[in-house]
Amino acid sequence: MKYFNNAILALVVGVGTAALAQTASAEFPEKSITVMLPFGPGGGTDMLTRSFDLFANDVFGHNFTIEYRPGGGSAVGTTALAREEANGYTIGMGSLPHMYLQPAAGAGEYTLDDFDFIALIAREPQLLVTPLDSPYDSYDKLKAAAQENPGSLTLGIPSPLSETWLAYERIDAVEDLGFTVITYQGGGQMNAALLGNQVDAAVTNIGPVYGEIENLNVLAVTSEEKVSFLPDVPTFRELGVDVVTSVERVFMAPKGVPEENLEALRAGFSEIWHNPEFQERMAELRFGMAWIDGAEVRDYLAGQREIILDIYEATEN
Predict the structure, then answer these.
(1) What percentage of the chain has pLDDT greater than the value 90?
(2) Which helix (H) or strand (E) holds 157?
(3) pLDDT at site 314
């Protein structure tokens, strides 16, 4: 019996040691990575994430599991991500300047210090658009109608305390347009309202509306220079409105991801982003692509935060 017990003990120890060795040698990720998105389906974050997901299985061995957490103009989902377990298996996409503006306004229970950053992957300006059959098919016509009857025209914005909200606030501070602003829970909802003539105009990012661009009048763009694929659309500066804005998108994880897992995420997303096939797809979707490696993102965001908050405070005053 003693021999039998010793044999069992040796077997148990052997199995346990083998399991530990297997765990220690397992490569991350061993299962699908969940990507939490703070907006509903159909908007820019969703389109970008699904584009990355087309290449995820080849790079990570699994496709992503996409989870939507809309609400509060991304504040709900971003706050939820900050509270997730920091193991690398739950990540998300943040939009900027949302992540600067919301904590400043008390709309999100998080700060930049609550995250590990994987990479900044996109940057794009905003468009002022109207439905194709709108009588306001130029900026001058829209401006005149809005100023003639303040509050009578409606303007859609994908989310509050966002780059589109900030863009309109800056334009309105110069032009005193006086739209009645309606905010939505992401670009998908706003696009439906715009195309359904439920709002008179909208300020939106390029990516989410580019597939419907033939159904819209694009009146102006917030970039410093004209956009190559919209050569006839003036910049606001060309219209005499000194406003330049953009949205930046960043993949991130809750703070404290093990270093080896974080490095695997950064290397994997870099491999996808630099893949020529991925870049070709982004060009077709007209997303403005940019790349800052995760190790450098935090310092970059800290500098941009100060710039945006200075603008925000001036707008509020």
Answers:
(1) 62
(2) strand 154-157
(3) 74
